[in-house]
Amino acid sequence: MREKGLEKLNNNKEKKKKNHVPFRMNMLFFIVFLLFSLLILRLGVIQIVYGEDAKREVERTEDITVNKSVPRGKIFDRKHRLIVDNEPKKAITYTVPNQFDQKETLKTARELAKLIDKDTDKITERDKIDYWLMTHPDEAAKKVSKAELEKYKDKNDEIYKLQRDRVTKEELASLTKEDLEVLAIYREFTGGYALTQQIVKNEDVSTEEYAQVSERLAELPGVDTTTDWERKYTYKDTLRSILGNVSNGLPSEKMDYYMSRGYSRNDRVGKSYIELQYEDVLRGQKEKIKNITRSGSIIESKVLHEGQRGKDLVLTIDMELQREVDKIIEEELRKTKMRGGTGLLDRAFVTMMDPHTGEILAMSGKQYAYDEDEGRYKFSDFASGNFTTSYVVGSSVKGASVLTGYMTGVIAPHSVLLDEPIVIKGSKPKSSHFNRGGYIYINDHTALVRSSNVYMYKIAIAIGDGQYRRGQSLIIDKEKVFRIMREHFSQFGLGIRTGIDLPGEQIGFRGSVEQAVGGNALDFAIGQYDSYTPLQLAQYVSTIANGGYRMEPHIVKEIRDPSNEKEEMGPLSQEIQPKVLNRINAQDAWIQRVRGAFWGVFHEANGTGRAFASEPYRPAGKTGTAETVDRGTGVWNLSLVAFAPYDNPEVAISIVVPSAYVKGGSPNTINSDIGKRVLKAYFDLKNKKDDSSKEDNEEEEEEE
């Protein structure tokens, strides 16, 4: 009985247990059913109620307007000969998407690297480290310990810095040539802003590369093939240092400045001289493009506004004359150096200017130096040295000294002074080259013709209320001399900016007044204390040639709108008018007195420029010789200022030849030799043009 009772009890327990299991399973199934029902209900609501909104959001497009660069304006000479042009060249570009995806960008870079050869010279070590970390994520993760991850868990930059610092040289060396090409392309891809076109390659793009990329554009998102351009110089190195250079992309030091003015990072801008000075004119109007994007990717591009290349510049320079002057300087430098005694002679400068308008007709500078790349001495263009370098020029500025004497009232036309050795206590005697020990009374005209130093010394002494007694200390107000003479010299453009429309102009070196002695004030009057640029000398002699008006020199004559016709000039946009900066405070008769003396320098028996006497173009001018020091060696600088024809000047020139010969060596006349030849070249070209015009007129008359 007992056993039967126990069996019955066990059966009841199993029955209860079996009843609980189905109940729990049913509850679980019921809960799952409810969750699925809620999910289906939610999906139904989204599909039915919000479906259209979601669809519109996915399909939503954005219109983003960007600018595309255009070629720069061209540059012509005064005869409308093309100097600087734009040469088209094949280019491969990449437009950065609005939503950057590192993996997709790297994938595109790898595919493009299979089609083109990319220069890797610009890759830095930092670029290699970043690329290695990006392409080796597992190894990169192992470079940081768990403790460091915990320490810098909210500072990803610190963690990345640790990883960068721990990349070894061996790991970087594992990057193959193919890896570096991919990196170089990826570097170009990521170098710009969203939806801006980046140049990936525009140098030496082969026809095969261009064709292969063009055929696979659908597989290369963001990549495109287009036509780029580069500056082409028709006359090669002629005037090259003044034409200036153009950047590849915005200069980093001026990035913010240009970006604030609507430039893009990869835009080209003028870096120096004409290209820089006239950047706003040459840059042109960008092409406006509307990029239509969906989900951050460009699906279509539309041109909103056709771009227009920059406006053209017409220079005042005559390139035929410019090339002739360059040739003359090279020949005379080479010839003079062969004579010996000219160990430091390595450069010469010529500025030719219209004295009535300030137009620069030619600006030539040549430097003879050793070229490390070519392993030989060669001439290079240094035209910019006419306004960026300065030299003591000697007697060529004595015309300004005499006119300063007139304007201050210490002398008058025909004033006679005694040319004698000036002996100051404690100093070496000072004298004129033509009169080392005698006593000769001369007037202002003769003082200029024969280049009297003493006459100029005595002008300076009078300006400084000085008293000269032979063998005694010179009593003079040196501060007054420097102040007054510099003020008057500046009326001619000496020692101040000329106003030329080019950046980087120097005003020259002003000798110290505080450290000067009385004798230095006298040296100033003969051009042996302050230094001047060749351009300042040209402005100075032009002021005397045209009757006292200091004209602002300029190198751009016209600005023209771009022409659709390749061979024709566009319509005139702006003509640069002559500008008078000031009129010197001198009577016409005083100026004519100095002009007459300049004629005498070239044509009278005792003139220092007698070499010009037989020239048919009737020149007038003043020579200059200055004793100075170059690289620790005593040397003589030679200079020349001139204008022609004397009666109605149409050209003024300045010539400066630093270190023409060493002290104690044989003198030479390279300044006069260059001067005669460049003036002859100017008038020969003018006569050639006149003869050509005459022949054309005769042919037209015969046809009529």
TrEMBL record:
Its EC number is 3.4.16.4. SUPFAM superfamilies: beta-lactamase/transpeptidase-like, Penicillin binding protein dimerisation domain. Its main location: membrane. Pathway: Cell wall biogenesis; peptidoglycan biosynthesis. Gene3D superfamilies: DD-peptidase/beta-lactamase superfamily, Penicillin-binding protein 2a (Domain 2), Penicillin-binding protein, N-terminal non-catalytic domain, head sub-domain. Belongs to the transpeptidase family. This is serine-type D-Ala-D-Ala carboxypeptidase. The lineage of its organism: Bacteria, Bacillati, Bacillota, Bacilli, Bacillales. The gene is yqgF.
